[in-house]
TrEMBL record:
Gene3D superfamilies: NAD(P)-binding Rossmann-like Domain. Residues 10-247 form the NAD-dependent epimerase/dehydratase domain. One of its GO terms (molecular function) is oxidoreductase activity, acting on the CH-OH group of donors, NAD or NADP as acceptor. Pfam families: Epimerase (PF01370). Keywords: Oxidoreductase. This is NAD-dependent epimerase/dehydratase. PANTHER family: NAD DEPENDENT EPIMERASE/DEHYDRATASE (PTHR10366), VPS9 DOMAIN-CONTAINING PROTEIN (PTHR10366:SF812). It comes from the Bacteria. InterPro entries: Epimerase_deHydtase (IPR001509), NAD(P)-bd_dom_sf (IPR036291), NAD(P)_dehydrat-like (IPR050425).
Length: 355
């Protein structure tokens, strides 16, 4: 049982990130003091959305410079904090050097944040943003799982530096976190393991994989046909709320799958097409799997033949029961998540209609 003093500052790492922005927005709205680490606090334009929120909410924010690779960086930001929310980690579908660009920052960053927690007497709980990617690597893995679905008991065993390297980085980082947490008893660790996060962020010009995907569904990239990737999806506002519930629920423990809908690109395209109509360049037909297998690697280096074989057309099923019972989560409908996210892109001029 861990009770967090709501008046103590709360550290959120990766403050410029898509998810972190919404977590910070909810914390500020609830009147908390937020310590946000960012790679470069001198880039004021990256902080403009957070500054605007802080100016109109009851809470307050302080920025601290921290790179995940710097072992000394997180201590000053953590001083006085009882709750640490560690979201920062590279989320990039394709990189030149997976060890250097994904695994090292994810694992070293987690080690650095948790080593700082060990050295900071005030810290009582760390909420780590892990991922469903630490539970499964490919949809084909799910057939061999108990009851053929993702649960908190399962770990990703199929990813590697050469195959699904992002998922490998999240698996190694979460394992490192449990190892460090288990070696002490002053603070406890709770993980949030979201599936694909979608929904409007605090800054419509945000980059990152979630914005890239929703853009591609509507900008004509999939107009010739939608690849039948099946995924879990969850609203960013619900994932943010789960982090805060995980922080302030005294009995919270262990991992929590955060996934609202077992869905896929085909259903997501249909939901958006039904709402926004034919003015936008949504795909209608399903791209045959052999075409994705054949052309995928030429279109996107992340779409290797092995990745396509082990994912396209294969169901994704995750069990979110623990998030509902242990954290009291309720989830937004997929339609609201997708249409509100897409509308944000239209309003910001990032998506244009056919006309
Ligand atoms: P994002 O917008 O790309 O945010 C990633 C954050 O990590 C950014 O603040 C980034 O800083 C920071 N970061 C990356 N490398 C860093 C480094 N070397 N030093 C310091 N900071 C670094 O991605 P997101 O979607 O919000 O993801 C946030 C977390 O959620 C990640 O742990 C990700 O694995 C997890 N997650 C995301 C999804 C999803 O669908 N989006 C699903 C499951 C789990 P800069 O802004 O300076 O680059």
């Amino acid at each position: 049982m861990t009770a967090i003093n709501p008046d103590a500052p709360i550290l959120v790492t990766g403050g410029t990130g898509y998810l972190a922005g919404v977590i910070i927005a909810q914390l500020l709205d609830a009147g908390h003091t937020v310590h946000a680490t960012v790679r470069d606090p001198d880039k004021r334009d990256r902080l403009a959305a957070l500054d605007a929120l802080a100016a109109t909410s009851p809470g307050s924010i302080r920025y601290f410079r921290a790179d995940l690779r710097d072992p000394e960086a997180f201590g000053p930001a953590m001083t006085g904090c009882e709750l640490v929310i560690h979201t920062a980690s590279p989320f990039i579908a394709h990189v030149a050097d997976p060890q250097r660009d994904l695994v090292d920052p994810a694992v070293e960053g987690t080690r650095n944040v948790l080593t700082a927690a060990n050295a900071t007497e005030s810290v009582k709980r760390v909420v780590l943003t892990s991922s469903c990617a630490a539970i499964y690597g490919d949809n084909a893995d799910i057939a061999a799982m108990p009851e053929r679905k993702l649960t908190e008991a399962v770990w990703n065993t199929s990813s590697s530096l050469r195959h699904q390297a992002y998922s490998f980085s999240k698996t190694l980082a979460e394992k490192a976190a449990w190892e460090i947490a288990g070696a002490q008893s002053r603070w406890d660790l709770v993980t949030i393991n979201p599936s694909l996060i979608l929904g409007p962020g605090i800054d419509p010009m945000t980059s990152g994989e979630s914005y890239a995907l929703i853009t591609q569904i509507g900008d004509g990239t999939m107009a010739a046909g939608v690849p039948d990737f099946r995924i879990g999806a969850v609203d960013v506002r619900d994932v943010a709320a789960a982090h805060i519930k995980a922080g302030f629920t005294p009995q919270a423990e262990g991992r929590h799958i955060l996934s609202a809908h077992n869905t896929g690109f085909v259903e997501m395209s249909a939901v958006l097409r039904d709402h926004f109509g034919s003015d936008y360049k949504f795909g209608k037909s399903i791209l045959p799997k052999f075409l994705v297998w054949l052309a995928g690697p030429m279109i996107n280096p992340a779409l290797t033949r092995k990745m396509v074989s082990r994912n396209v057309g294969i169901p994704f099923i995750a069990d979110n029961a623990k998030s509902r019972t242990a954290l009291g989560m309720t989830y937004r409908p997929l339609q609201a998540t997708l249409t509100e996210h897409f509308q944000q892109l239209i309003d910001a001029g990032r998506i244009t209609s056919k006309q």
